[in-house]
Design a protein that fits this description.
The chain is mainly β and 295 residues long. It is 0% helix and 38% strand. The protein contains no helices and 25 strands. Strands 4-11-10-7 form a four-stranded mixed beta sheet, with no helix packed on it. Strands 13-20-19-16 form a four-stranded mixed beta sheet, with no helix packed on it. Strand 8 and strand 9 form a beta hairpin. It starts with 22 loop residues before the first strand and ends with a strand.
């Protein structure tokens, strides 16, 4: 029995692949095709009635891309052995907010972290056919750095103060105290509660676009205010005197100097602006000079 084709397409499949950019012709034998009445098709025996040229599929070079959140916008640059124009599109789901712009949509405006499919489409040109090539663009999280400087020593009773750490991401820095018997932290404010040492840790956990930052730790020392106890000088002569009084401290302060000065008046003035002046009611020795402890 013979096959019957009614208004259908007759497909001819070559037994081997045809060469690129070559001329071919289709010939049909006179007895190969009959109509429904049994009449044979006259056939084609020349090389011009159904001749055609094959084309070349271009080779597009376009590799996967890896970028980091915050990177500068960049241009796509697929290459090919064809001179056909290449344009670009985003294919499928795009959750990153990345967009394309510019000539042929070649400029990539980087969005948030994630991945998306980019397609390069090349138009047919000469013996070259059109073609497409898909790649994956992956946008990774960026690193962030905390800037948090050294802390100055404090005295028990000092008012609460603000911490001023920052990140290059602009995300908020969080803080913690290793010794809450010395200092407590609320938000970015430190409150002094006791004498001693504590480490203040600045951290930033990151988000969908930034990795967690490396912690920065700064030491905080809290000292006590020294206590001064004084009494009148005794055994006063023209060149000496016995000094009385003490300075006590339990906050690791250091007493750097004790001494006295003579004056003709009742209240001589010391040039040393950091001194503690103690008035003594005598005519010759009127001031005991005890330097303020180093903090």
């Amino acid at each position: 029995a013979s096959d019957v084709y009614k208004r259908q397409v007759l497909t001819i499949n070559p037994s081997t692949n045809m060469d690129d950019s070559a001329n071919y012709a289709i010939q049909i034998a006179a007895t190969a095709i009959d109509d429904t009445s049994g009449n044979s098709y006259t056939g084609i025996t020349n090389n011009t009635t159904l001749d055609f040229n094959t084309v070349i599929t271009p080779t597009i070079t376009f590799a996967d891309l890896n970028k980091t959140f915050g990177d500068a916008n960049f241009d796509l640059a697929a290459t090919s052995n064809s001179a056909g124009t290449i344009t670009y599109t985003i294919e499928g789901v795009n959750t990153t907010g990345t967009t394309l712009s510019g000539t042929s949509n070649k400029t990539v405006n980087i969005g948030n972290t994630g991945s998306l499919t980019l397609r390069a489409t090349q138009a047919a040109n000469g013996v070259y056919s059109s073609a497409t090539k898909d790649i994956t663009l992956t946008i990774s999280k960026a690193n962030q750095i905390i800037t948090f400087g050294a802390l100055t020593s404090k005295i028990l009773g000092d008012t609460p103060f603000a911490l001023t750490g920052t990140t290059n991401s602009g995300l908020t820095v969080t803080y913690a105290s290793s010794n809450t018997a010395v200092a407590t932290v609320s938000g970015s404010t430190i409150t002094i509660v006791g004498i001693g040492f504590t480490n203040i840790t600045a951290s930033q956990a990151g988000n969908t676009n930034y990795n967690a930052a490396s912690n920065v730790i700064q030491a905080l020392t809290v000292k006590s205010e020294p206590t001064l106890t004084i009494a009148n000088a005794t055994n006063i002569t023209s060149s000496s005197a016995t000094l009385h009084g003490t300075i006590t401290s339990d906050g690791n302060t250091t007493i750097t100097e004790r001494g006295f000065v003579y004056g003709n008046g009742g209240n001589p003035t010391l040039v040393d602006g950091s001194s503690i002046k103690v008035i003594v009611n005598t005519s010759d020795l009127s001031l005991i000079h005890i330097s303020e402890p180093t903090r």
